Amino acid sequence: MTRWQEPVAQNSLEDIFGTLRRHPDVEAPNLQAWDATDRLLLEAAAARLTPDTRLAVIGDRYGALTLGALGTLGVRRVRVHEDLITGERALRNNAAALGLAAADPGAVDATGFDQLALGEELLSGAGTVLLQLPRTLAELDEIADAVARHAAPDVVLLAGGRIKHMSLGMNAVLARHFQTVQPQLATQKSRIIMASGARPATEATEAPGWRPAVEHLDELDLDVAAHGAVFAGAKLDIGTRFLLTFLPEMPQARHAIDLGCGTGILAAMYARQNPGARVTATDRSAAAVASAQGTARANGLEDRITALQDDAMSTVPAGSAGLVLLNPPFHLGASVHAGAGIKLFEAAARVLAPGGELWTVFNRHLQYLPTLGRLVGPTTVRGSNPKFTVAVSTRRP
Q: How confident is the model at residue 30 (pLDDT cuts 50, 70, 90)?
């Protein structure tokens, strides 16, 4: 949990948005740290907020909502949850750029923001919740359940998103947890859904803590745990399925890493195949790390697999791994961008010991082979099918 003080001077929303950066996330001219939905949510919240409002913010990708509420709407304290560690760090970086300083962690009444996990501490007593709508209904269901369960009985949830990414299913999910769900008029290709009248949790939904769903994958004979925010849920992604066909060919490493682990399927299958290996499952998503922990636990592998939330293995020592397994994303949010994969290739090159191997699966249309050869070392294609390529890169001495 991190607490920060208020800005040293009042800022306009334009000042705040103009200062925001995505760093340490990938940055590029076509990638922005805020969007029209952030502006729309702040404008909609303005009439509801006072300095003493108990405000919670969820899905604040780079700090636009949190810093906008503190810097322009007069709110003294914001509790914020962002699933990605890159988003958490970007918020702190942007706060510092706007003149905020770290407060005394012991000062309970300090002005500023607290970064918290999704759950009771984040939402307790909250009268207003601002939400950047997630991409999946499963994640929205987890968030809406947490808000209805832990926030004030009269809480108002303002959930906003880009229209092209919204669906009627979102209204239905919110209606399971709130008595009133009111879509608002669209502005600049964004829309807000206002939900109020939290429905009390029923016995069927009473589940202490934040627990993933667990499903059994018959084809792998593996129990997979998945929170709503995790890519592919509890299902087996087709790229991961293809990479697993090469499992018998992979070297036996003392320390193997499942980079961008998601639900931890690769980590679990490698640990099962190689009983002497120590395996790290790492992802920038808190939901993914919790899912990977759940998968390890469900299959009796919790003593062999360590789950770590990190940004591209930034805290993993250089040269400490003999094997890295990677199914890299080729999207950054809603944008198709190669930068996410390249960042992970660079991280693998740093963490691999000389002679260690990076096994990567990626869509055939992506021109990753020259980049892998340049960043990691000699790279060969180990297999391909109509959709995917599996490549092996050996770390240079």
A: confident
